[in-house]
Amino acid sequence: MKNYLLDSLFINMLRLRAICPFSWRVFQFRTCSCKPLISQMITCTDEEQVFDLIEKNKAILSEKQVECAFNILWQFQKQKTSFLKNVDCIRDNPQFLTLHNLATSQMEFMNDDTLVNVLYITQQCATEAHDLVAALVTEAWRRLERFDINVLSKFSSCLANQNLYFSPLMGKIADIVHRNLETIEDLRSLSVLMVSISSLISQRFQEQLVNKTEHLFDTIDSSQVNVARRIVQFLRNIKYSYYPLLERCNKVFLSNMNHLDLDSISKILSLYHSLQFHSFEFVETAKKRLAEMIPLFDHPDGFVKLFVALGPIAGPEEKKQYLKISVIPSEISILVYALSILPSSHLDEVGISRIEAILPQCDLNDLNGFATSVLRWIHYDRKCLDNTTGKQLKLLQKLDHFGLQRLRKCNNLNLLWEELKSLKGDWFAESLLEETAGTLHRLMDEINYKNVAEIASFISRTNYFSTLLLDRIASVVVQQSEKIHPYVILDIILPFSIFNYDPPQNDEFFRICIQYLNSYLSGLDPLMLVFLGYSLATLGYFPEDLLKAIFNIKFLAKMDSQLEFLCSSLNMKVQFRLMELNRAVCLECPEYQIPWFHDRFCQQQYNKDIGSMNGAQQQIYKMLAEVLGGTNCVKASVLTPYYHRIDFECILDKRKKALPYGSHNITLGTLPETHWESHTQITGSRLPPGAERIALEFLDSRAFCRNIPHLKGKSAMKKRQLEILGYRVIQIPHFQWNSMALSTKEARMDYLRERIFGKSKS
């Protein structure tokens, strides 16, 4: 009977081949004794066996079999001790590219759970699979509203793995959670979402999440350590020491102490320390648990791991002892940092020598960590520059040296970016930024569609102006725009906006960016559209489709609903950007007939922010009074129509003589006066014939790039708009006012006369 069935099957397949020869290649004849492909994958004992199956069956793999292959490869990965080695083992296998391509071609057929699972595993296994990750994220974004709570939580963790905490997509997830909070009953999934969205949400929404968590807490059993830890992490993120919830989480940790490893104990202690939550029972139980672990360590570095776990429990002398026996740079960096934040702690000569010995092995993150700690010690010890502090200064010089050497030897942009992406602090900006820019120049041919947004974001963050890098970014976008994900367009445009720079291909570059955005307007987050509109307006670009999408009642209502659950700082930033975009469109594109609707908002903000003059502004004010003929001839801290604030204003008649304001001037430090007839009037109708209104602005270092005195976009846009309002704008850069050429009062007076009247004192 069995043979008869096989023969019949074979005959039918031959007939099918005769009828549809092109379909033959998608069938592979198997006897009934063959195991299903997923069963074969499950019985594989290593990665090579999985890849062999993929190679033999690539023509018929379904989306479920693709997911199974990813799952099994990830299981092998987690079982190994050498993480990076096994990442290479998977990523470098030719069949991984086959799996990659299969996932790309089949993702629209994947169900929601499979799609997000493949995304998660791809992130873990293949750090360079940018195009697949981008495609999967795009598909997930398209389906976002239909995701159930479990899939949504896993997707949010994928975004968190990419550090997209402040992305519009994460904002959309926060909005979905906010709208559906009452119906969510799964605390495990909710706890993941709360860690992901905590940076974006308002205080009211935070309180709602805390209340919901407390309500659902009894739905988890006492073994749910990870859920409890995520809840404590959320409380730490929102800086809320809510003791009833902390106590309940603490009970979960205590009941599972025998199952906690070093990393878990370390993280819990660190969270408790941040929240100033003191559980004597947990600390004592943790000490006993750690004491039980000591025999497990047969290498000195094991004791460092114990120290890391002990965290706040260990004292300064214990930390110094651990420092003397550690040999791993990252662990020494942690130890040094822990010592640096303790009161009355000093880095002795043994500790300094220990650091110096491992400097050649350190990457930029380790070096930055050491530098931050050493700078903290130097700051604390500056009143007593003893011999130890002198050695710390020498150590800082060595850190500079090794940081520069590492940059000069780097020959791979992707490897460099892995070290650069999380660097911050004074040491990097002061000591390494110039060399980092040089290294990026040297490797800029490696900038492509996969990393262009990251490099653009880095340039924006560091305030370092480089026409070479910006030109390369523009060139990549022009050549490879179809491969670039729409949600990174803002990151790409931002440095051009910040630095007020048009690349050589500016028309084509911005045309492509705007055209690309227009294709995705309906799918992009409202907050992202506002930031995009503002960034383009700064450069003088006002795409009509984008502005029509923003300035309509439906859009603004949707944005208002999102603002309700944003944290206060982000909420205010969005509102300011919308106001500035509204102002820019009204002044620079009146033909669009978009109304000005921010009077009330601006009045509220300027009533809160009276402002005060710095030293340079006070000097300028007094000298302007002398130059112009008295304090009644100059106004300080003036609000213009559409609420631009200017430092000083004066009016010259047709003979270049200053006109007095009478008794309408203001006292320094009081609320700025608005003396025009209307906040939307843009003509100087009240001026005498031939008179001109002059705005004088003192520009501090914030108005310029870090490395060269190039005026940034915000100040350039303000000048452009003040000129539309009828002003002649005089900008006084800080580096001119504080220069040696203007070191005397007389020189400064001459400078002001020349800028205002076009001549110096005769």
What this model shows, in words?
The protein is mostly helical and 762 residues long. 62% of the residues lie in helices and 4% in strands. It has a 4-stranded mixed β-sheet, sandwiched between helices. A hairpin with a 5-residue loop joins strand 1 and strand 2. Helix 13 runs antiparallel to helix 14, helix 15 packs parallel to helix 17 and helix 29 packs across helix 30. The radius of gyration is 32 Å and the shape is globular. The N terminus is likely disordered.
Distance between the termini: 118 Å
- The Cα radius of gyration reads 32 Å
Helix content: 55-70%
Topology, number of strands: 4
Label the overall shape. Answer: globular
Strand order of the largest sheet: 1-2-3-4
Low confidence ranges:
1-35, 296-306, 663-685
Largest sheet report:
4 strands, mixed
Beta-strand content: under 5%
**Number of H- or I-type helical stretches:** 37
The whole-number mean of residue pLDDT values reads: 81
The structural class is mainly alpha
